[in-house]
Amino acid sequence: MHISIDRDVCIGAGQCALTAPDVFTQDDDGFSELLPGRADGAESPLVREAGRACPVGAITVTDG
Fold this sequence. Notes:
By secondary structure, the protein is of the alpha+beta class. The chain has 2 helices and 4 strands; from the N terminus they run E-H-E-E-H-E. The chain is globular. Pfam families: Fer4_15. It comes from Streptomyces pyxinae.
């Protein structure tokens, strides 16, 4: 699984960090970022839900 965040689209709503706090966090400016080591192979079952919860579609989750 590969997770990416389009930081140009992110508005810092924080829905990803609320939905999957073991994978996502927010930086000092309030924008979403992945916790270290989570860009590939994150196994949390909530990762896809976090992508769907993003109000602006800044999170992409793909297999592989």
